[in-house]
Design a protein that fits this description.
Elements (H helix, E strand, L loop, with lengths): L1 H25 L3 H10 L4 H19 L5 H12 L4 H24 L7 H13 L4 H14 L4 H13 L4 H13 L10 H10 L4 H13 L4 H7 L4 H6 L3
Helix pairs in contact: 1-2, 1-3, 2-3, 2-4, 3-5, 4-5, 5-6, 6-8, 7-8, 8-9, 8-10, 9-11, 11-12
């Protein structure tokens, strides 16, 4: 019996070493691999989970998915001493989400040069609370209206939604930005304004109205802040 257990442990160790080598060869972060290998020594369940984690990292790498979201989630879990077994389902969901996003982008004709970056952005949008169906419908519509700014539009939507703005209000703001060709990356900072406006007790309608007016004027976030009664510098630099 003891010999059988030892043989199983040797086989498991060999498989883990093989997966680690494959992950490193593909380009998975060495520090992440080392962390997973280190925690794999905490018992059989951890060793099996480590194999699953490395397998997902390899699959995501070979599929051409952005690696930062995966490596970041593993590193975060290891730093917080989360059992490897609990990290596995999180990575599986992330793999499915980012694979879905990549397929969506390819189907909509996204240029291959920006595919990884756009996959990361839209994958993060799913993490903000959007469902796959919501993201697919929104992105497809925005892409038809303005292919160049569709990803930025979804990103702004997800930021505002995560900050607490309702879905209808988020759509109004994004639609105004596209209609007036006024969106730019600086508008992603409007999510911080949303947070402070909510704390001030302002309703979604008032927040959206200020953003829509500023965008219709092709103005920046500071203009929307002024319309909401904020002074620009304290709001943008505030950690309150």
């Amino acid at each position: 019996m003891l010999l059988l257990l030892l043989s199983s442990a040797v086989l498991a160790g060999a498989k883990l070493d093989s997966l680690a080598a494959r992950a490193g060869k593909c380009g998975v972060d060495d520090a992440v691999i080392a962390g997973v290998m280190r925690h794999a020594q905490e018992g059989a369940p951890a060793g099996q989970a480590a194999q699953s984690i490395l397998d997902i990292l390899i699959r995501s790498c070979e599929a051409g998915l952005p690696q930062a979201p995966f490596a970041g989630k593993v590193s975060e879990g290891l730093a917080k001493r989360v059992p490897l077994q609990r990290i596995v389902p999180i990575l599986e969901t992330r793999f499915k989400d980012y694979s879905f996003v990549r397929e969506l982008l390819v189907r909509e004709g996204t240029d291959s040069s920006g595919l990884q970056q756009d996959t990361a952005i839209l994958g993060d949008a799913l993490a903000s609370g959007m469902t796959r169906q919501e993201l697919e419908i929104l992105f497809a519509r925005l892409h038809r209206e303005n292919p160049m700014d569709a990803v930025l539009g979804v990103q702004l939507y997800s930021y505002m939604f995560l900050a607490g703005l309702g879905k209808d209000a988020c759509e109004r703001v994004v639609a105004a930005g596209l209609e007036h060709d006024a969106l730019n990356p600086d508008w992603l900072g409007f999510s911080r304004v949303v947070v402070l406006a909510k704390r001030k007790g302002l309703e979604d309608e008032a927040i959206a109205r200020a953003a829509v007016q500023a965008l219709s004027e092709k103005a920046d976030v500071k203009r929307a802040m002024m319309l909401l009664g904020f002074t620009a510098r304290p709001v943008l630099n505030s950690d309150e």
